[in-house]
Automatic annotation (TrEMBL), chain A:
Domain of life from the UniProt record: Bacteria
Name of protein: Electron transfer flavoprotein subunit beta
Family: Belongs to the ETF beta-subunit/FixA family.
Pfam families hit by this protein: ETF (PF01012)
Domain Electron transfer flavoprotein alpha/beta-subunit N-terminal as annotated: residue spans: 23-211
Keyword Electron transport attached: yes
Keywords: Electron transport, Transport
PROSITE patterns with a match to the protein in the record: ETF_BETA
Automatic annotation (TrEMBL), chain B:
PROSITE patterns for this protein: ETF_ALPHA
Keyword Transmembrane helix: no
Alphabetical list of InterPro entries matching this protein: DHS-like_NAD/FAD-binding_dom, ETF_a/b_N, ETF_a/FixB, ETF_alpha_N, ETF_asu_C, ETF_asu_C_CS, Rossmann-like_a/b/a_fold
Protein name: Electron transfer flavoprotein subunit alpha
Family membership noted in the UniProt record: Belongs to the ETF alpha-subunit/FixB family.
Keywords of the record: Electron transport, FAD, Flavoprotein, Transport
Domain called Electron transfer flavoprotein alpha/beta-subunit N-terminal: residue spans: 3-182
Length: 249, 310
């Protein structure tokens, strides 16, 4: 079986985000970029499935600026076999990304397609679901456990109020939640080896996909500041403030 | 054209998230229809018909919709979508699961977790874990949205008198089936709709301390119990109690954070709370920067005292 894993280059999750003064977006110049944390979990799951003998080959795809090859190389260092970079200078929106991934998944006849549940920049949580819909296949979103059994995969999903397990025919799309696994660190020899692994470069036009979206970002502003709070000296003072000042209890 | 709101429910009763979603729909237009997809869900449809502002309820009652599997529900919604300009669902795990499928079936882009309505084509939504708010304009003919429920006050659950129309639309992908469900049991109010939330973090040190220190305070206040990701990952409490970017987004009247440092990912889930109280022994903890009232104290002493005095 083959797996396709989609990874996105995003601002590192530890970086404190700054909104640009002209409100056109978030300032990404000179900031540390990484693989989206949920995508790292997707790579790790694919590698574990390979180690378990379920998967023979892992293909990693990324759609974004040329620099996204760093993220593909990082995934290759974690154990993926080869990469496909679709270079696009336009902002990649989920629908367009899903259309490109569908093309790749069908050309490569992949059986399991793994994505993160959401990218921590746009917080959309859409691409995996859109991909499954376009391909007309099943989806297991917010996965916390993945078990392949024959030509089916059982996915345990984190839902509001608890857990739900669904059985999906393969091929299927799975999007990862945080508790699915703990991604490994790349070892130095593997980082060196990853440099020799194949990485194909493509453009959206190769897949006949127009990256233009019917969404336009008008402005980006920082969230409203909370007014400064006060430090209370005792539980009595806290109870008094909550009762008489904030009037919330 | 009318607006379609997808009803959030458990086949027995309508979830409050639907009322918040209807409130968002009302800011877009007046003719609001609610779609109830479920199995044995007549009572849900009747309840939806009474909600303020609803003009019609569509009930698709069939076993294939019992667990609201994304594939089946998306086909249903896309099938009835022709009559609507906007399609809305709450940004719950149900809404997030099937709505992008609907958008892809209609070949339109989608807006997730809107927190504000500027006009019928323009919406506000948080990005970067709530560290920025984007205003986005869409030129799609059909606008597909999920709604951050805590950003909209719910409409009244009584007073409406919509008609309920049964539709016998049966859609099944045949590619996915339900196996089982394990729900965490709780007698307390639901986390996302509670007026008060008491949350604990890693400093609680174990699950027994949640029972011993957090729960009595929550019960006294009639509050829901939440947790930080650290507390969930350490196994102190089940993960459906997690508040944060990757867990639940809450905005109660009062949020009490005990032993929570306040990482970006946690703040993204609670910083729209009206009043935030932090109890922490570290005055430098990031939670102090968003707290209205900060009590520098050992939570194992402060929590029992607080419980006895409220």
């Amino acid at each position: 079986m083959k797996a396709l894993v989609a990874v996105k280059r995003v601002i590192d999750y530890n970086v404190k985000v700054r909104v640009k003064a002209d409100n056109s977006g978030v300032d990404l110049s000179n900031t540390k970029m990484s693989i989206n944390p949920f995508d790292e979990i997707a790579v790790e799951e694919a590698v574990r499935l390979k180690e378990a003998g379920v998967i023979d080959e892992i293909i990693v795809a990324s759609i974004g600026p040329k620099e996204s090859q760093e993220q593909i190389r990082a995934a290759l260092a974690l154990g993926a076999d080869r990469g496909i970079l679709v270079v696009s200078d336009e902002k990649p929106y989920p629908l367009q990304v899903a259309k490109i991934l569908k093309n790749i998944a069908e050309t490569e006849s992949t059986d399991i397609i793994l994505l993160g549940k959401q990218a921590i920049d746009d917080d959309n949580n859409q691409t995996g679901q859109m991909l499954a819909a376009l391909m007309g296949i099943g989806q297991g979103t917010f996965a916390s456990e993945v078990k392949v059994e024959g030509d089916k995969v059982n996915v345990t999903r984190e839902i509001d109020g608890g857990l739900q397990t669904v059985a999906l025919d393969l091929p299927a799309v799975i999007t990862t939640d945080l508790r699915l696994n703990e991604p490994r660190y790349a070892k130095l020899p593997n980082i060196m080896k990853a440099k020799k692994k194949p990485l194909d470069e493509k453009t959206p036009a190769d897949f006949g996909v127009d990256m233009a979206s019917k969404q336009e970002i008008i402005k980006v502003v920082p969230p409203a500041e909370r007014k400064a709070g006060i430090t209370v000296g005792s539980v009595d003072e806290l109870v008094d403030k909550l009762r008489n000042e904030a009037k919330v209890i | 054209m009318a607006i379609l709101v997808y009803a959030e429910h458990d086949n027995a009763s309508l979830k409050k998230a639907t009322l918040n979603t209807i409130a968002a729909a009302k800011q877009i237009g007046d003719d609001i229809h609610v779609l109830v997809a479920g199995s044995g869900a007549q009572a849900v449809a009747d309840e939806a018909a009474k909600a303020e502002g609803v003009t019609k309820v569509l009930l698709a009652d069939n076993a294939v919709y019992e667990h609201q599997l994304a594939g089946n529900v998306a086909l249903l919604v896309a099938d009835v979508a022709g009559d609507y300009s906007h399609i809305l669902a709450a940004a719950t795990t149900t809404g997030k699961n099937f709505m992008p499928r609907v958008a892809a079936l209609l070949d339109v882009s989608m807006l997730s977790e809107i927190s504000g309505v500027v006009d019928a084509q323009t919406f506000e939504r948080p990005i970067y874990a709530g560290n920025a708010t984007a205003t986005v304009k869409t030129s799609e003919d059909k606008v597909v949205l999920t709604v951050r429920t805590t950003a909209f006050d719910p409409v009244a659950s009584e007073g409406g008198s919509a008609t309920v129309e049964t539709i016998d639309n049966v859609q099944e992908t045949g590619k996915a089936s339900f196996v089982n469900e394990e729900m965490a049991k709780s007698d307390r109010p639901e986390l996302t709709s509670a007026g008060i939330v008491v949350s604990g973090g890693r400093a609680l040190a174990n699950g027994e301390n949640f029972t011993k220190y957090i729960e009595p305070l929550a019960d006294k206040l009639g509050a829901a119990v939440g947790a930080s990701r650290a507390a969930v990952d350490a196994g102190y409490v089940p993960n459906d109690m997690q508040v944060g970017q990757t867990g639940k987004i809450v905005a109660p009247q009062l949020y009490i954070a005990a032993g929570i440092s306040g990482a970006i990912q946690h703040l993204a889930g609670m910083k729209d709370s009206k009043v935030i109280v932090a109890i922490n022994n570290d005055p430098e903890a990031p939670i102090a920067s968003v707290a209205d009232y900060f009590l520098e104290a050992d939570l194992f002493e402060a929590l029992p005292e607080l419980t006895s005095k409220v």
